[in-house]
Amino acid sequence: MKIKKRSKPLPLRKLDVIIPRLSPQFPRLPEMKEEAKKQGRGYSGEIKVDYHLEILASRYTLLDDVYLHNNSKNFQIDSLIAGNHGIFIIETKNYMGTIIFDSILKQLIRDDGNVESGFNYPITQTETQKFHLRNWLLKHRLTHIPIYYFIAIADPTTIIKVDGDREAISKVVAHAARIPGMIIEKDQELAQAGKPKLPDYQIGKMILHECGVYDMDIMGQFGLTCRNLLPGVFCPGCGIRGMQRIHGGWICRKCRHKSYYAHVKEVHDYVLLNGSITNTECMWLLGLNSRSTATRVLQKSGLIYLKEPKCWVKKTRIY
Ligand SMILES: [Zn+2]
């Protein structure tokens, strides 16, 4: 059973909100677009891998995007599978072209046909996750649980090459479609070796209970404050910014699309970036000139009001 489903990562959601609200002259805009592209590529790779792992949901406990805290360190696992006799960590990689695992120098080289680029060695990265997960389990009195990892190559057209120990790499690296079979095989191997049956659902629940949400201060990282953002309501029809307020709703200046709820997304996006929204900020964001309209809009937006410090926040706050 899958007990934790993937959603779009917060840093990527933030980038998607910020980029259309920046002036085209903002100097770091190209860098931000590049970052959004990179993160989007990672996310779409994870979705592709989820599709293949889904087949395991009938016999094991699956958790997407596990983010745990242990000994003042946070660690993130793309997919975690609590099997019948072991726990499996899946790290997803989504690269175009050819990737070369250099098992001697412990590096990953990607060749897209034009340029060779170097990346963190996924095996070292996943070994670290395994180390943290083992410590986390020990802290929760779960000892002697076998942990294995696999590196899933999301795109079936990516060519995988090895420089060095081909056999060792082939045991842990494969295209996503092969990963479920490799997990089942390993789990059965553990059963044959006499490893005890695990309470996989209980272990999964325990992990789920302690899972946090990975976030990044994207605004701070790119030297932005909400003052750098351009205000206005985006048209759900044609995508341009600056819908006009009319009798409790909005109309697009360009395509004449009408909407009653176009502002709800804008308010929530603002809270995503800023953590909260005040009445004044709402007036600025939506281009309202009446305080009472802003209050009414906020009351209907599914947020809750905090008397101190006089602002609106999401019902469930993310720490
Ligand atoms: Zn429009």
Automatic annotation (TrEMBL):
Stored InterPro entries: NERD
Domain NERD: 41-156
PROSITE patterns from the UniProt entry: NERD (PS50965)
Pfam families referenced in this protein's UniProt entry, alphabetically: NERD
Superkingdom of this protein's organism: Bacteria
Protein name listed in UniProt: Nuclease
Source organism (scientific name): Lentibacillus kapialis
